[in-house]
Amino acid sequence: MYEVEVKVRADHDDVRPTLEARGADRIGTVEQVDTYYDAPHRDFADTDEALRIRREATHGEETATVVTYKGPLLEAESKTREEIETPIHSVEDVDAILSALGFEPAAEVTKRRERWRLDSYLVTLDDVAGLGEFVEVEAETAAEAAIESVREGAYDLLRSLDLDPEEQIRTSYLGLLLADDAE
Amino acid sequence: MYEVEVKVRADHDDVRPTLEARGADRIGTVEQVDTYYDAPHRDFADTDEALRIRREATHGEETATVVTYKGPLLEAESKTREEIETPIHSVEDVDAILSALGFEPAAEVTKRRERWRLDSYLVTLDDVAGLGEFVEVEAETAAEAAIESVREGAYDLLRSLDLDPEEQIRTSYLGLLLADDAE
Q1: Residue B62 pLDDT grade (very low, low, confident, very high; cuts 50, 70, 90)
Q2: Which of A131, A147, B13, B137 is at 20 to 30 A from B86, Cα to Cα?
Q3: What is the number of other CB atoms lying within 10 angstroms of the CB of residue A67?
Q4: A43 contacts on B by Cβ (under 8 Å)
């Protein structure tokens, strides 16, 4: 499965009326708090890996807690990477085990995600603490040959929301936050 | 909380009738499969730590899966160590994340544990694959000053089962298996 994602900065109040006018379905809103860990034996920034605990809540009520490992890009073009995700029961215990093994919390990404469905695309309005508002358009395709047309469709969708695909941001929220810190 | 544990080799068929005659309560039997991991950045044998996934089953039906971190001995006398244990949903996913991070399965300990309660002690009849049969007597106490008398009580209990506390084995099952491998 190939995932096509296009992300731009955008004011949500400008985008919502257009989404509604175009008949998009509002799926719902979640809050996500992601804690990224540093490893004691590798620099994840160099190896292009990530280890994260994600706490997800709806209306302040915790709904899911998962630990995720992301491997390095397997293929740059389609942005495919190994991703292993598994639910956990206790953030405190998993954090304590990681800390005992030398993994340390390095950064936190907190955001509110409002999800809409429009045609075959998922449109996500992300409000990221410390970074501001973004709109992300994504779709999956099983056929490598379809990636280009799916991406063009995502660009068209952005344009129909009065957004400019040329302003696409390829850096992750974590990357943007760490870049801010480094300035 | 201090845990007092005394373990000796013993033929279970010799011990069961005595436990019954003494009015011990048979609590139940579980099968445990423990997978111990090596770390990529430390030698756990040197640091006296352990990282383990334990799958527990009753009558072949999986009942619990937990990951456990054991820290080094904090105090030799009372054998106190930090222990962090947390339930997991998927052995495959947690194993895949550990492997991706460089932790490798190093040894497996498989045993059948038959638990009895006698007075304030837990008596466990362990049948360990590759090692044979053991009897373990344990109790917890909150008072450090009570450790000695709790230990004496455990010795008395062993003697009442016709077992000799002088034959106590202080090495873990993992340690015994690894020592066998090294021979």
Answers
A1: confident
A2: B137
A3: 23
A4: none
Catalytic residue IDs of B: 36
Burial class (CB in 10 A: 0-12, 13-18, 19+), A154: buried
The reported pLDDT for the residue numbered A96 is 96
For the residues A147-151, what does the mean pLDDT come to?
89
In the prediction, which pLDDT does A77 show?
Answer: 56
Residue in this structure with the two tokens 């080799």, named with its chain if needed: B9
Is 90 exceeded by the pLDDT of residue A86? Answer: yes
Q: Which of B66, B67, B93 to mutate to test the interface with A (most CBs of A within 10 A)?
A: B93
What residue type is B140 in one-letter code?
A: E
What ipTM score was computed for the predicted complex, to two decimals? 0.84
In the Cβ-directed half-sphere of A23, how many Cα atoms lie within 13 Å? Answer: 2
pLDDT of residue A148: 87
Instruction: Check A39 against B67: CB less than 8 A apart.
Output: no
pLDDT of residue A75: 64
Is the pLDDT at B173 greater than 90? The verdict is yes
pLDDT band at A120 (very low <50, low <70, confident <90, very high): very high
| Residues in chain B, total | 183
**Candidate from B40, B51, B87 with C-beta closest to A41:** B40
What tokens appear for A138 in the block?
A: 């994504």
- Alpha carbons B25 and B115: distance in angstroms, whole number: 9
Cβ distance B86 to A85 less than 8 Å, yes or no, reads no
Phi, psi dihedrals of residue B106, rounded to the nearest 5°: -115, -35
- Taking an 8 Å cut-off on Cβ atoms, the answer to whether B93 and A102 are in contact is no
Residue at A87: amino acid letter: P
Measured torsion, CA atoms of residues A19, A23, A28, A31, in degrees rounded to the nearest 10: -10
Going by C-alpha positions, the residue among B12, B7, B24 that lies closest to residue B151 is: B7
Q: Give the separation between CA B126 and CA B87, rounded to whole angstroms.
A: 23
The secondary element (H helix, E strand) that includes residue B19 is helix B12-21
Nearest to A135 by CA among A102, A161, A100, A106: A161
**Taking CB atoms and an 8 Å cut-off, how many pairs form between chains A and B?**
58
Put simply, the answer to whether A89 touches B84 (Cβ < 8 Å) is: no
Nearest to B87 among A49, A51, A89 (CB): A89
